[in-house]
Structure prediction request, 180 residues.
Amino acid sequence: MIRLFVALDIPAPLRQRLHAMGKDIPGARPAPRDQIHLTLRFIGEVDDGMALDIEASLAAVRSPPFSLSVRGVGCFPHRGTPRVLWAGLSESRELDILHTHIENRLIACGLPPEPGKFSPHITLARLRDCPRRQADAFLADKALFRSEDFPVEGFVLYASRLLKSGAVHVARASWPLGAT
Ligand code: 2AM
Prediction:
């Protein structure tokens, strides 16, 4: 069995900035700098045959390249004890279209539809025992954070191995975006 998810890579200089933001929060476990990503679709555990089907199916996705920027920050859950701090993204119709194409290809492979609405975010840090007011202070401080636009030129299928030291992400395949 293999644990899979589909993601967009973030350019290294922006990953560095986001990682630095995640490090500022007392009591937070920042996302490893080189693993900062935007999850398009968490797939979960599948067997090797299904993983090959998924790879073949995602290769057929045709969607145009586009630009995104990071806009503001937030946390999950929205109320109560915060567990994840994240950076938000600019509104993007192209991102929604890409997500829909990927979702449709995965459903065609026999996976159940994604539960819940696609909520694009970039995880900055996971929190343990972080008082709400501390998270709120971070959210207020970074509310106006904006990045430069960055190009989205492809998407990646990652395998995630859960080790004691944390998750390790390994790219299994990636595909360029191009003319439809
Ligand atoms: P997130 O940090 O962007 O929320 C790989 O596990 C990635 O899949 C995680 O970084 C997490 O991204 C995302 N993910 C989404 N739903 C998940 C779930 N139910 N379990 C684990 N990871 C999930």
